[in-house]
Amino acid sequence: HLQGLEFYLLGVYGPNVPDSSFWGSLTTLCSSYRDYPYIVVGDFNTVVDASVDRSSTISASSRDGRDLPAFLDSIDLVDAWRLLHPMERDYTHTSRAHGTHSRIDYVLTSPSLFYVVDTVEHGPLEISDHSMLFLDFSSPHRLSSRRPWRFPAYLYQDKDFFQFLCSKWKDYVSFNTCEELSPITFWEASKAVLRGEIISYVCARKRRIAQGIIQLERRCCETCLAYIQHPSSNTRTLYFSAQYALNALIHDKTKRWFHFKNYSFHRYGNRAGKVLASLVRREWSS
């Protein structure tokens, strides 16, 4: 249940070799749960149509165009990306060993859910040799949540942030030094002023990182396309260097996320009931 929509979400990792028993078991599993429509996502390790979903039919499997289409028909699913991009050729997996590309990662939906799908896009190849898949859909209900402001603990050891904060503190002291101002008012007002400066710094930092990720993703897509169309050592180097730079930026972003989660759980570590209640409440709201 997600924001007014009820559906089954199923993640699939298909076998690397032809295995009819896997597809039979998957079909049986899905057939036994038909109360709600399906969204099925994952790496299927096969394609619907090798002529458009692989860059070269030399690497095509004997099961291409058989197992996955049969599964779609048996459960009544549609290939959301293909319906939105009927004439486009794009790939989600790159085999560096064979120098080939294929679209083996799919977002499949029940026809009754496709009407809420806004976009399905392939992201750049970042951490792995598979592209990310982005699914955006409209929801009957939009939920908003606000959590109280917390000091960005991940910036404790950031030298640029430390210098910024010291500079703002000196500015505050220089503008608010007078005999009529009580120490209590001086201190309480300083917390509000510095909090505003910190929020401004963090927002600007997030914008710079987000813009950097967008630019590197665009460069990854461009260099990947150039490598696909004109494979050479030069285009390969440009593609892998862009991918490495993007991986480094995303790695840093992930570290900050883990730092935040680690802080959250340590903060409530001696009050397990409170953190569990918070998790349950968040689950219910979604």
In a nutshell, what does this entry contain?
The chain has 286 residues and is of the alpha+beta class. It has helices spanning 20-31, 50-53, 67-75, 80-84, 111-114, 159-175, 183-229, 233-267, 272-285; strands spanning 8-13, 38-43, 78-79, 93-95, 100-102, 105-109, 117-125, 131-137.
Estimate the strand proportion: 5-15%
Low-confidence stretches: none
Biggest sheet, strands in spatial order? 1-2-6-3
H/E series, N to C? EHEHHEHEEEHEEHHHH
> What class, by secondary structure content?
alpha+beta
**Biggest β-sheet strands, sense, barrel:** 4 strands, mixed
Rounded average pLDDT: 81
Morphology: elongated
Tally of strands: 8
Gyration radius (Cα, Å) is 25 Å
Number of helices: 9
Distance between the termini: 7 Å
Explain the overall architecture.
The chain is of the alpha+beta class and 286 residues long. 51% of the residues lie in helices and 14% in strands. Strands 1-2-6-3 form a 4-stranded mixed beta sheet. A two-stranded antiparallel ribbon has the order 4-5. β1, α1 and β2 form a beta-alpha-beta unit. α1 packs parallel to α3, α6 runs antiparallel to α7 and α7 runs antiparallel to α8. The relative contact order is 0.09.
